Amino acid sequence: RVNDGSATGTKTAAVLVETPFEGIADIDAAVAALGPPSGPLNAGQVNSLRAKLRNASKQLDNGNTTPDLNMLNAFLNELQAMVQSGRVSQASAAPIVVFTQRVIDSINAP
């Protein structure tokens, strides 16, 4: 609530806080949507990306943050290579890249 003496106003905002595990699961769902039947990637390409996410989640579950971060960075590198080669549009990849970076940042946070 804001009040300057003559006018008042109220605003609300919803904030969704996710664990890194939940974030990786959401990234995985977004990657799955890039595959068959309507996405630009074939099943093998999607599987390659998703395997990195599964491995990242497994490493995180085991408390191995360095290997987890390495897997997430490998995921980003592969996705960026797909953008560079024209297999995935920048518009499709951008939200996935941003969200993956947020997960990486949350893992790196003290």
Please, could you describe this protein's structure?
With 110 residues, the chain is mostly helical. Helices cover 65% and strands 4% of the residues. The protein is built from four helices and two strands. The protein has a two-stranded antiparallel ribbon. Strand 1 (2-3) and strand 2 form a beta hairpin. The longest helix is centred in the C-terminal third of the chain and has 20 residues, at 65-84. It is globular. It starts with a strand and ends with a helix. The model has no long low-confidence stretch (mean pLDDT 92).
According to DSSP, the number of beta strands is 2
Give the fraction of residues assigned to helices. Answer: 55-70%
Classification by helices and strands: mainly alpha
Strand fraction band?
under 5%
Give the overall silhouette.
globular
Summarize model confidence as the mean pLDDT.
92
Question: SSE order, as H and E?
Answer: EEHHHH
Uncertain segments: none
The major pleated sheet works out as: 2 strands, antiparallel
Counting H and I runs of at least 4 residues, what is the number of helices? 4
Strand order of the largest sheet: 1-2
* Rg over alpha carbons: 18 Å
Distance between the termini: 31 Å
Features:
single chain; 110 residues; mainly alpha; two-stranded antiparallel ribbon; 4 helices; globular
Secondary structure blueprint with pairings:
Layout: E1 2-3, E2 8-9, H1 20-32, H2 43-61, H3 65-84, H4 90-108
Antiparallel strand pairs: 1-2
